[in-house]
From TrEMBL:
<feature type="domain" description="Prephenate/arogenate dehydrogenase">
    <location>
        <begin position="2"/>
        <end position="284"/>
    </location>
</feature>
<dbReference type="GO" id="GO:0070403">
    <property type="term" value="F:NAD+ binding"/>
</dbReference>
<keyword id="KW-0560">Oxidoreductase</keyword>
<dbReference type="GO" id="GO:0008977">
    <property type="term" value="F:prephenate dehydrogenase (NAD+) activity"/>
</dbReference>
<dbReference type="Pfam" id="PF02153">
    <property type="entry name" value="PDH_N"/>
</dbReference>
<dbReference type="InterPro" id="IPR003099">
    <property type="entry name" value="Prephen_DH"/>
</dbReference>
<dbReference type="InterPro" id="IPR008927">
    <property type="entry name" value="6-PGluconate_DH-like_C_sf"/>
</dbReference>
<dbReference type="GO" id="GO:0006571">
    <property type="term" value="P:tyrosine biosynthetic process"/>
</dbReference>
<dbReference type="Pfam" id="PF20463">
    <property type="entry name" value="PDH_C"/>
</dbReference>
<dbReference type="InterPro" id="IPR046825">
    <property type="entry name" value="PDH_C"/>
</dbReference>
<dbReference type="InterPro" id="IPR036291">
    <property type="entry name" value="NAD(P)-bd_dom_sf"/>
</dbReference>
<dbReference type="GO" id="GO:0004665">
    <property type="term" value="F:prephenate dehydrogenase (NADP+) activity"/>
</dbReference>
<dbReference type="InterPro" id="IPR046826">
    <property type="entry name" value="PDH_N"/>
</dbReference>
<dbReference type="InterPro" id="IPR050812">
    <property type="entry name" value="Preph/Arog_dehydrog"/>
</dbReference>
<protein>
    <submittedName>
        <fullName>Prephenate dehydrogenase</fullName>
        <ecNumber>1.3.1.12</ecNumber>
    </submittedName>
</protein>
Length: 284
């Protein structure tokens, strides 16, 4: 692997470039982003060596790369897959960092069937921050994180093995999953906590606004439960649109659980709820 091209030089894309450098990658890293500011920041911090001058130039740089990393929201990933498939060649690897995988896998099977095409490896690093942008990127962002893959084929090319090797050098653990299972599990462990924090933060803002008592009384518990409420809609729109079924299922289950708690505030059932919750936390 001598050349990497990163499409999307925000938090995850720029962190990928920094992680490659920190791990000892000596090849060239180019990047593209719709934001000139993000690209300039990524260049300045050393996450990428050069930047594409236009979308057309980005396709040219993609043709030269050994590995193309799609570090943009899910709908943009699908759009780039459509653009890249006709111009790439056998031996290249395309991978992504999208938070949902089923729609990406289905499209990858259609656009990258193998043989004379580039190989597509769907991926999802379970790492990030409540805010995005290249300025928040870190070379150690993936250290200790789980990097999920939902492969579309059982065969592993030499380039895929090398890419997985670099991810291991980032300090990441890796796990292969079925795409449907991935989206279901992430709905529970990632997407639901985000929606819960967003709803709670919005409720508090609507009810209390900038009331000084909130800052005076609210402590660590409030900060922790509303931290994800700082995440912008732009980061989560595509997750909601491409994983709406599983996310809706988790929200319904939570609504029913909250109703159960509300109806049992004065009964021993509330103690049982705390017992189950404590057991879950003790396992982790």
């Amino acid at each position: 692997m001598e050349r990497v091209f990163i499409i999307g030089t925000g938090l995850i894309g720029a962190s990928t470039g920094l992680a490659l450098r920190a791990a000892g990658f000596g090849g060239r890293i180019d990047g593209w982003d719709t934001s000139q500011l993000e690209m300039a920041s990524a260049v300045q911090m050393g996450a990428i060596d050069g930047r594409a001058a236009s979308r057309e130039n980005a396709l040219e740089l993609a043709r030269l790369a050994d590995v193309i990393v799609l570090a943009v929201p899910v709908l943009a990933i699908k759009d780039w897959m459509q653009q890249l498939a006709p111009v790439l060649r056998s031996g290249q690897l395309v991978t992504d960092v999208g938070s949902t995988k089923l729609e990406i896998v289905e499209l990858a099977r259609e656009l990258f069937p193998g043989d004379s095409t580039a190989v597509f490896l769907p991926g999802h690093p379970m790492a990030g921050k409540e805010s995005g942008g290249a300025l928040l990127a870190e070379g150690g962002l993936f250290d200790g994180a789980m990097w999920l893959f939902t492969p579309i084929t059982l065969e592993m090319t030499a380039m895929e093995r090398e890419w997985r090797g670099w991810i291991g050098c980032f300090g990441s653990r890796m796990l292969d999953m079925d795409a449907t299972r991935h989206d279901e599990m992430c709905a529970w462990v990632s997407h639901l906590p985000q929606m819960l924090s967003t709803a709670l933060s919005a409720l508090l803002e609507e009810r209390f606004g900038d009331a000084p008592e909130i800052a005076a009384i609210g402590g660590r518990a409030l900060r922790e439960t509303t931290r994800l409420g700082a995440s912008p809609y732009s980061m989560w729109r595509d997750v909601a649109m491409t994983n709406s079924g599983p996310v809706a299922d988790t929200l319904l289950a939570l609504e029913q659980r909250l109703q159960h708690v509300r109806e049992n505030l004065r009964t021993p059932e509330l103690r049982d709820e705390f017992t189950l919750a404590n057991r879950f936390r003790q396992r982790r």
